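Subject: complex prediction, re-run

Hi both,

The earlier run crashed halfway through, so I resubmitted it with identical inputs.
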Amino acid sequence: MEKQWSEMTPAEKRAARFAKWLAPPGIKFVSRRAEQTYRERVNRLIKTITLQTPDRVPVILPMGFFPAFYAGSNLKNVMYDYRELRRAWKQVIRDFDMDVFDPPALVWSARAFEMLDYKLYQWPGHGLAPDASSYQYVEGEYLKAGEYGAMLENPTDFGLRVFLPRVLGALQPFQTLPPSSPLAGMPMSYVMSFSRPEIRRAYQTLLKAGRELEKWGRAVRDCRRAAVKAGVPVLRGGFTTAPFDTLGDSLRGTQGIIMDMYRQPEKILETVERIIPLTIASAVATANASECPIISIPLHKGEDGFMSRQQYEKFYWPSLKRVLTGLINEGIVPLVFAEGRYASRLEIIRDIPRGSVIWWFEQTDLALARKYLGDIACIAGNVPASLLVTGNPSQVKDYCRRIIESAGQGGGLILNGAAFMHRGNPENLRVMMEAAREYGTYR
Amino acid sequence: MDKQWSALTREEKRERRLKKFLSGEGIRFRSSQAEKTYQERASRFLKAWMCQEPDRVPVTLPTGFFPAYYAGGNLKKAMYDYRFLEEAWLKFMHDFYDDMDSFMGPNFVFSGKALEILNYRPYRWPGHGLGDNVNSYQFVEMDYMKADEYPTLLKDPSDFSFRVIVPRAIGSLEALRNFPPLSAIMGMPLIMAYPFTSPEIRAAFQSLIEAGKEMEESQKHMAAVNKEALEMGFPAAGGGLAVAPFDVIADFLRGTQGAILDMYRQPEIMLEAIDMITRWTIERTINNVNASGGFMVSFPLHKGDDTFMSNKQFEKFYWPSLKKVIDALIDEGIMVSLFAEGKYNLRLEYIKDFPKGWVVWQFDQTDMARAKKIVGATCCIAGNVPSSIMLTGTAQEVKEYCRRLIETCAPGGGYVLSGGATATEARPENLRAFMEAAREYGMYR
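This time it finished cleanly. Structure:
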């Protein structure tokens, strides 16, 4: 009989997740060739992650929203029209030789966002020019400096009645809901608020947005399945954020969180402590629902230029490390994207089990990263987006060669962009694969 | 409230809250007679509540759902036919206009359709688990919270309520058990939206929306009744209802059996939960009073009755938290009316300890002579014509019972003539006997 999940060691759990990744349940490959290629690609990734030597350096093409533009459309169109979304991402599956496919999970549904009046983003056609190639994140003090106490005392109630109405305009009537905890035990009082038309309207909007997100989710899953069936694995089993960033990005904003590090450091630590288990639980749930054991974590405010080393060690790393450990213990592989520069953090972030995390660097020198982390973690990166967008194919290819030569000895490297290209010459992506084949073959 | 509110004494706070009640300011009275009657009734009650002598003993009838039957219908009809509900209660109000000093509106008649849409498990009602002509609800106690769930309740009560209690108690909301923890909304707002991609979750909320429409409709009719009663000259002290912290656990969360076991097996964590519920109750009740513009809060008390627990348990589990809530309300200038269901003979020494003239004790089966002696010095008392006489006795017997109550309880003021419990299917003349007795035997001057 099989061992119960809860009794398995982290290594056993990971082995089980890798096995599922290698043979995704419910997938009928388009051909035996596709199936074989799929396995080769996943094996290449697994070997690289676990610091064994694969057949060659695997490549992630840093497309971002490139498929929309490549298909003659743009980000705005695919955010509003799921048929366009499908068409664009499926065309990329057909047209590109690639080791990994990134499904359009970050192409949000603009329709749902509009219904909800989502305030954390501006997007093309909604605050940004219609042909803009990315989002603008709108930071704000959605949690005020004096509100930590209220949020910590009752996060659910604070979330419903204070935070949500601030970031989802359609839920503004929630501000007038009575405090929800005193209703515990009296289910009828909970129901009572639905006798108010404005509360019903807010929920009607959630129902509508839910139906929209369901359609959108189907489109994303379709693209994802199409890639896997064609033999291209997906490297995205879910997405989460570092606890400090959850607080700094979406609740306090950059300015607020900087002040808090000086004025109310304890409150930050207490909040981050509360966010850790929520982060782990939701990431594990999404990974469980996916065939892919990779959870990506884009890092923001721990960057070299944002805080001192002491602050990083006090405010940023301990909670991130606990999230990483929590995921690793569940057999999940975190794909941690260190945006900006991370040179001064390399020594600190060594403190994780060997071969359990992918560190993707943006502007950190990969040779340096390799020096600090080479025996600990697989690294990924970092062809600059500027080069991808403005350079020519031979310049890109040359840059890739230098990365492979300086950071790819014996494995442990995934060739990747520093950030997403979004828009540019398709050849600049294709030469990344070429470079890996020419310079990154291990035997 | 202006900014010096916190600097006011409780009496000053009460005075501000009372102003509107006493003057009837803002009410569009139907006639000058209505206005005059309103003011007489308001001051009559207020004096009694404040342990003073009014012009005569005020009368509150044990109405219950009587108006539905008096109008030729029954509770079931009133629950499903909102127009009938409105007509019945208005008819009662007009027909018994001179037989009572206060009017009890139809607020406890729940919308049968809303309860049905929700598949609301804590109640059975006529036509739904009870016979069509049953004249009351059956409360269905259950351990909606399991014995080992106190820590979860304490950790995040809103979340526990939303994802655990509500799906157990409300059949149409079973799917909420699959909702992700709402605390994760912290910084992740779409956590609230994604669950709505599930058709089961959408169906659950659709049922709430449908039930909400029914409730709104039924509330419109109730509001019409309450408004007309006010404009006809029936004062409303309205500060809403509250529940004793122990009863929140024993009635709604753990049920009687569970609560009794907990007093023996896990008293510490039970007290911790009571403590938390006490804090909420204070916060919520004060908010409700401020929002309603009223000044008096009513508590129906259940599990502190003589037979349910020992005095030792009452001292430890029931009374301190309830006392804390009442004291906090009084500090805010809010008066409190407590309905001690069952018998409170063993509790009289505990419950008298309040500043004079702030608390009203309405008794069901408690010995009123002792209550007057022990509690009556500080608190107004009310009660307790038995429902049994109301239903089976003659008008003469009711009147006689009222006379004895008045003779026992009225001297010196601080008494309201009322029933021990409601008397839904009483004879109309038995209700009218209350006022006859009050007029004959209850005049102070």
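Strands of chain B lie at 123-126, 129-130, 138-139, 238-241, 296-301, 335-340, 359-363, 380-385, 415-419.

- K.
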